[in-house]
Structure formats: C-alpha cells, structure tokens
C-alpha cells in the first residue's frame, strides 16, 4: 500500500497525469456538445497551477542532477510563458465557439502540445533515468502542494493570467 502512495506522488507520474487531463480538456473545448466555457476555466486553472508548480518546485531541483539537460529545463520555462500568452488570448475571447475562439484555441493547443511532447521526451525521461525514486516522490509531493496552493488562489482567473503574462 505504501508503495502505491509513493508511486502516486512520483513527480513524473503526477506531471503526466496533468498532461493527459490537459489533452482531454482540449477535446472538450473543441466539442460543440461540451460546456466549452467550463472546460476553458478548468484548463486555465490547471495550466497555470501546473506550470507555476513545475517552475517553483521541480525545474530548479532537476537542474541539480548532472544528467538532466539544463537547457531543456530552461526551454520548458520559456514554453510555459508562450503557453500562458496563448491562454490569455483565448481567455479574452468573449464568444465561445466563434471563429476567433477556434483560432486562439488551436494556437493554444499547438503551443501546449508542443511543450508537453518535448517535456515528456527530454526533461521527464531524464528525471526517470537520473533522479532516484525517493527524490522523485519528494518532488511530486512538493509539486502537488504548490499546484493545490495555486488552484486555491484562483490562479486561472483572467486577472491572474494577465499578471503572469505581463510580469
């Protein structure tokens, strides 16, 4: 049982779970049958909480491992900024399902999907190979704490996303 709890806390597994949730929310934001505004709100909160938690708790720690590529970690943070800008553009669309919505959603999907793919192939694989299980569990717990703190603070609100994008 204890091993299960530790596995659930593994920073790689926790990050991957969020990635799959983001992909599901993209599908919902594209579907005329879904509550797209609700999916956008959930996506916004998750993207911001996830990125802020990675930068606060995970990226810096991973850079200290010699076989984790520091340039990839720094590039990941740059891609968070690009994703946040694309998110803000979508949040500023008032008419869900409009042509503007579709264009901005696809720009967001492209930016975020590129980042998820790259992060999974580089940073997360490096972490699997070079970071001990116990340390990955500690990082997972720290990531989840920060992610929950962000979510509780309404991190996905348009005002907060604007503040993050504008620095």
Please give a quick description of this structure.
Residues 1-7 have low confidence and may be disordered.
Structure write-up:
The structure is a single chain. By secondary structure, this protein is mostly helical. It is built from seven helices and no strands. The longest helix is centred in the last third of the chain and has 32 residues, at 99-130. The N and C termini lie far apart (43 Å). Residues 1-7 have low confidence and may be disordered.
Task: Show unreliable segments.
Answer: 1-7
Oligomer: single chain
- The overall strand count is 0
The percent range for strand residues is under 5%
- The percentage helix is over 70%
C-alpha end-to-end distance: 43 Å
- Number of separate helices: 7
Class computed from helices, strands and strand pairing: mainly alpha
Q: Roughly what is the average pLDDT, rounded to an integer? A: 93
Radius of gyration: 16 Å
Q: What are the secondary-structure elements, in order, as H or E?
A: HHHHHHH
Largest sheet: none
Q: What is the global morphology?
A: elongated
SSE blueprint:
Layout: H1 2-9, H2 11-30, H3 36-63, H4 70-91, H5 99-130, H6 133-152, H7 158-166
Helix pairs in contact: 1-6, 2-3, 2-5, 2-6, 3-4, 3-6, 4-5, 4-7
């Amino acid at each position: 049982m204890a091993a299960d709890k530790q596995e659930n806390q593994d920073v790689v597994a926790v990050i991957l779970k969020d990635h799959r949730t983001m992909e599901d929310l993209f599908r919902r934001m594209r579907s005329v049958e879904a509550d797209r505004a609700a999916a956008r709100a959930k996506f916004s909160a998750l993207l911001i909480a996830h990125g802020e938690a990675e930068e606060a708790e995970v990226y810096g720690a991973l850079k200290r491992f010699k076989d984790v590529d520091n340039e990839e970690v720094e590039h990941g943070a740059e891609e968070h900024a690009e994703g946040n800008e694309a998110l803000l553009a979508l949040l500023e669309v008032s008419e869900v399902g409009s042509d503007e919505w579709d264009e901005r959603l696809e720009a967001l999907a492209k930016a975020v999907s590129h980042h998820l793919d790259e992060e999974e192939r580089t940073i997360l694989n490096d972490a699997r190979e070079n970071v001990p299980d116990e340390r990955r569990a500690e990082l997972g717990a720290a990531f989840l704490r920060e992610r929950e703190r962000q979510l509780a603070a309404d991190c996905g609100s348009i005002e907060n996303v604007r503040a993050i994008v504008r620095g």
